Amino acid sequence: MLQLLLIWMLNALALLAVGNFVPGIHLDSFADAMIAAFFLGLVNALIRPLLVILTLPATVLTLGLFIFVINGLLFWFTGSVLKGFVVDGFWYGMAGAMLYSIFSWALTSAAAQLVRKS
User: Fold this and answer.
1) Within a 10 A sphere around the Cβ of 101, how many other Cβ atoms?
2) How far is CA 43 from CA 47, 51, 60, in A?
3) Has residue 91 got a pLDDT over 90?
4) In sequence order, which residues have a C-beta less than 8 Å from that of residue 78 and are 6 or more positions away?
């Protein structure tokens, strides 16, 4: 349970970092980043697998690159649903989704290394 909370907080920090790097992504506060990280996790766990299956022909034709489009659309969708998290457009959603993945991976990997050492 504690590990899940740590990953959630690290994902919120990654989302704040994305908001600082991408000009079209805006977060009002850390609390909004926590809510957005939670919602992004739900969207990626529940909606993304269905979209991947439904768009499998397009994904195969583009050699997997259509997954980036799905990720960008879901990031943009999350920004349009939540109040304190705003994504200005699809291309900002694409850039945000890519950076969010990279930052989230880096932070959780670093935290896992620290936990293993202690």
Assistant:
1) 15
2) 5, 11, 22
3) yes
4) 36, 39, 40, 43, 85, 87
The 10s digit of each residue's pLDDT in 22-62 is: 999 999 999 999 999 999 999 999 999 999 999 999 999 99
In 3-state terms, the chain is what percent helix, strand and coil (to 5)?
80, 5, 15
> Any idea what DSSP says for residue 83?
S
What is the SS3 assignment for 54?
Answer: helix
Residues 30, 8 contacting (CB under 8 angstroms) = no
Between CA 33 and CA 8 the distance in angstroms is: 10
What are the angstrom distances between the C-alpha of 102 and each of 11, 17, 62, 96, 109?
11, 11, 22, 10, 11
Q: Is the pTM of this model over 0.85?
A: yes
| Residue written as token pair 């920090």 | 13
Q: Residue 87 is encoded by which pair of tokens?
A: 């994504």
Cα distance between residue 87 and residue 36, in whole Å = 11
